[in-house]
Amino acid sequence: MTNHGRGPIDGWADRLFQSTKDAIFLFDESGIPLASNSSAEELLAAGVGNQIERSFLDARQQNAAVHQLLLTLPEQGTFPYAAAIQRIDADEEVFAYSLRNISTLYQNQEKLYQNRMMKHVIEAQEKERRRLSRELHDSVAQELMSAVVDVRVLKHLTKEEALLKKMNQTEALMTRLLDDIRNLSVELRPATLDDFGLEAAFKSHFKRMEQRYGLLIDFRPSLPRKRYSSEIETVVYRVCQEAVLNALKYAEVDSVTVTLTERDEVLELVVEDHGTGFHPNAAPIGTGLGLYGMRERAELVNGVFHLQSRPNEGTSITLRVPAADRN
Question: Which pTM does this prediction carry?
Fold first, then answer.
């Protein structure tokens, strides 16, 4: 675009210079400050002018047009800045030195890195859980079952009362141990989750909860498809598992409602109870790691975790997960 009159553009350039959030300093070749915009004045007011001048001169000496520096602001801390040097007047050797605070960028990168690491850790945990679950079920449980059968056979080879009594006790003990191993295998990683999906895994899990603890769970599924990605299924299952367990331990209830639906490619899990409730901002009951873990898992699949609770009015936990990425 050809400029046939410098006046308006000069005015726009001045407004841009003053309004930009980047701190812009004008230096001559020897590092003497010539001008600065309002954002730069804020830095100067914080007492970091000498740091900025030294950084400019060092960058010029090293011919570093673009670089990073750390500015230590008194009583505020140290912040990372992206810096750029641009010669704007070759005749008079005037340079623009612009600084942009990239603390938010660093924080976002750190959060992204933490999420990736957490994702790898959880994936590794689930793989190890799956391996241990299958090992318990296919090896340990099968061997113990064989031992139970052997004890039952031996009972028919003797009529000695004391020996029969001891064998019956041993059989009962081994049977209880076998049940514990099978339950542990399922708790580690239910095979139904990998083989049949969320709805089947929930029905199986809730049946066990009712049998073991007497907790009645009103399960209301409404899913248009049987399967979702393994990552999504794992997150939804673990969040529900933890939410139901918390209701059992702390809510003082004998029933819980679990709703699992999908609308507009968003998978929604709601776990509700009408128990004791609590103040969400108060110190957590127990370790508090359960709620933290649920939120962490939700973030890993770009989900939203919401907790609503009030004393004597129950608790509602909602998880919403984008479900477009389906198997």
Answer: 0.64
